[in-house]
Give the backbone structure.
Amino acid sequence: DTNIQQREVLSVVLDEQGITWEAHGMLPPGKADIPIRTAQATLQSIKDRGFRTIVVSLENSLIELPPIAEAADALGMNNGDYFWLWNGNFDPSLLSTDVPVYRKLLHGSALVLSLERYWFADPNNTDLFWGYKTDPFLEAWRTASPELVELVNDANPIADGDDGFVSAGDDYFQVKNPGWGAGFLYDAIMTIGIGACKAERVNGTATSGSAHLRGIRSVDFTGSSGQVKFINGEGRSGARTESTALFGVINLLPYRS
């Protein structure tokens, strides 16, 4: 679902900029029952249409990138004539891969990702343009108590023994760093809660879905990812105000570990 949402956002922005584009879905490996074309069929269509900039929205790069890399190599679309731009969940371990076709596709491509303030928090930092001495979200993360860890473990929706199950130790929040997107997820949950409170304040009673949505769009608070505020009006109404979130574009150059 994540890459579908990214595609919807990109479509609005590209239309606003007057850029000609088209979207394609690709068949995930092992999902033969899904009526979407394979990576090679998709890239062949893009090549035939003459597009040279390819934006790929990833949900699991370790699964999705390999067939794309193989297809791009077979079709000669990794020779420098095409610009590849990745967004979504990109695993950095791919940058140290020894697989030649993966390295060839990634070399010189670009990764767009959201940047979170706590990534740059360093108590020894002196250059406040590039980083911060402290970060409230990271500070709160580090002070999580064993009681909170117990609550988190009890709320874990993944059953013991299933793929992805993790049982956090008492010092989990002291020895582990927040994962990619943690700050944005925290702000999303806070936005839902604050939006409900604002809607109930207006209505005086339990709120409806539409009133809750209006409450969400009216929030304006400082969260872990920066100021959280949404556009109200024409065009991208309901989208987060661009100036309130930080994004980076990284040129990828694979290396050997």
About this structure: The mean pLDDT is 84. The longest strand covers residues 53-58. Residues 182-203 form the longest helix (22 residues).
